[in-house]
């Protein structure tokens, strides 16, 4: 007999990433974890990613049949990976005696805008989900996707299943959203780069958003934004071991024991410099407007103080965008009679992050001093209230992270 849970039971949303679903055994393992949560007396909504490298395989397949596949059809193709995962998960839960139903993002009520491959969620109607929960079912929802107002399938971009999970959790007013992956939580630094990196028990939304945007790829930045907007606690934990994980929550709930909470790095950095730019109103707009029109995102921007009515402007883009950006910048530089344009792709970002930095001095000096003592040159610097980022040579990243991790005593459990 199918058990019908009480409507008063709490709701937990669990998302399982591609590595957690890469094989049939891993799908069955995730199903057992879902079953255990259900047996503890909670409603469960499950969000799934595509199995393993399925998305990359579908991309390769598309390129084999078309040099320029249409964006609409590409999104429809890529959405099938999650559909496979959802159907298989429902089957696995059924073999455990649990009633479940696989739903696409559209069937689960996720509506998006019309920007294919990087759509944003505009609305979630949880009516179907609540109906399934009330009937005793465990909804299995395809992550990473939704539908437009005309029912065309869209995808949310890499890591979009995190966003799907948090959006659904907010819509059904879940107790929390749990993100299961192949790591045990959020670490003070990437353990592959810093072996002594330590798992954090808690981290604030603000800190996690900075870490995610700076290269910590455990969480999708948009998912963190939604978590903060709707005050939805997010647990990041491993699907392979029983470990506490890391809870992402509001800063006031986090006991800040260290002013620096973690390090982030990103090796996908290219720099473009325009020298002897005429120092007059409108020149910056002339440089960056064509880049924006071409869909090229600019990160760090540094403009030197004017000298003889001229200045130098340097900025960073992803390495993959350097080749596209250079002709646009060179054309603009020629029109304004600038001195020249140069570029570099052998760069990376290293950052220190922590809300405690807002109220305590000296962090920049300590960071710069550590890098200087190690002979690591700083190409550019950018800051926010809770973050300091340095652009350095890419082949010095691992060394820089190790030095900074020790300098800020991140290996010590407060």
Summarize this structure briefly.
The chain is an alpha/beta fold. The protein has helices at residues 24-39, 54-65, 71-78, 80-95, 127-134, 160-171, 205-213, 221-229, 283-293, 319-335, 363-373, 397-407; strands spanning 11-16, 43-48, 100-103, 110-112, 121-124, 138-142, 145-147, 153-155, 176-181, 202-204, 234-238, 246-249, 262-278, 301-303, 310-317, 340-353, 380-384, 387-393.
CATH superfamily of the largest domain: Acetylglutamate kinase-like
The assigned CATH architecture of the largest domain is: 3-Layer(aba) Sandwich
Shape: globular
Strand content: 25-35%
Class inferred from helices and paired strands: alpha/beta
**The top level CATH class name of the largest domain:** Alpha Beta
Helix and strand element order: EHEHHHEEEHEEEHEEHHEEEHEEHEHEEH
Overall tally of structural domains:
2
Share of helical residues: 25-40%
Largest sheet properties: 8 strands, mixed
Instruction: Say how many strands there are.
Output: 18
List the uncertain runs. Answer: 1-5
Q: How many DSSP helices?
A: 12
Mean pLDDT: 91
CATH topology of the largest domain: Carbamate kinase
| CA-based gyration radius | 23 Å
- End-to-end Cα distance: 50 Å
- Strand arrangement within the widest β-sheet reads 3-6-2-1-9-11-12-10
């Amino acid at each position: 007999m199918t058990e019908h849970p009480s409507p008063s039971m709490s709701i937990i949303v669990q998302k399982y990433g591609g590595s957690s679903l890469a094989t049939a055994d891993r799908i069955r393992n995730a199903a057992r974890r879902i079953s255990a949560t259900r047996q503890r007396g909670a409603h469960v909504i499950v969000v799934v990613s595509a199995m393993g490298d399925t998305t990359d395989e579908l991309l390769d397949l598309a390129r084999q049949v078309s040099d320029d596949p249409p964006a609409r059809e590409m999104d429809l193709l890529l959405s099938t990976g999650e559909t496979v995962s959802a159907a298989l998960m429902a089957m696995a839960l059924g073999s455990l005696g649990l009633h479940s139903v696989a739903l696409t993002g559209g069937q689960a009520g996720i509506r998006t805008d019309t920007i294919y491959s990087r759509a944003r969620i505009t609305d979630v109607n949880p009516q179907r989900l609540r109906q399934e929960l009330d009937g005793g079912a465990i909804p299995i929802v395809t992550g990473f996707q939704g539908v437009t107002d005309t029912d065309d399938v869209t995808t949310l971009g890499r890591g979009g299943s995190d966003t799907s999970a948090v959006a659904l959790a907010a819509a059904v007013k879940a107790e929390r959203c749990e993100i299961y992956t192949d790591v045990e939580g959020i670490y003070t630094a990437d353990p592959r780069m810093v072996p002594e990196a330590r798992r954090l028990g808690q981290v604030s939304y603000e800190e996690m958003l900075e870490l995610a945007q700076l290269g910590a790829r455990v969480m999708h930045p948009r998912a963190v934004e939604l978590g903060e907007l709707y005050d939805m606690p997010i647990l990041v934990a491993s699907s392979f071991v029983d470990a506490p994980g890391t809870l992402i929550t509001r800063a006031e709930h986090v006991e800040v024991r260290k002013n620096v909470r973690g390090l982030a790095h990103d090796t996908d950095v290219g720099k473009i410099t325009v020298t002897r730019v005429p120092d007059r109103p409108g020149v910056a707009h002339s440089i960056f407007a064509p880049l924006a029109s071409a869909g090229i995102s600019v990160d760090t921007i540094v403009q030197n103080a004017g000298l003889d009515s001229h200045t130098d402007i340097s900025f960073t883009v992803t390495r993959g965008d350097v080749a596209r950006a250079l002709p646009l910048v060179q054309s603009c530089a020629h029109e304004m009679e600038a001195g020249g344009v140069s570029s570099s792709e052998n760069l990376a970002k290293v950052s220190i992050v922590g809300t405690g930095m807002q109220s305590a001095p000296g962090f920049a000096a300590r960071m710069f001093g550590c890098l200087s003592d190690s002979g690591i040159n700083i190409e550019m610097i950018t800051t926010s209230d809770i973050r300091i980022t340095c652009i350095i040579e890419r082949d010095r990243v691992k060394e820089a992270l190790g030095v900074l991790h020790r300098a800020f005593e991140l290996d010590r459990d407060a």
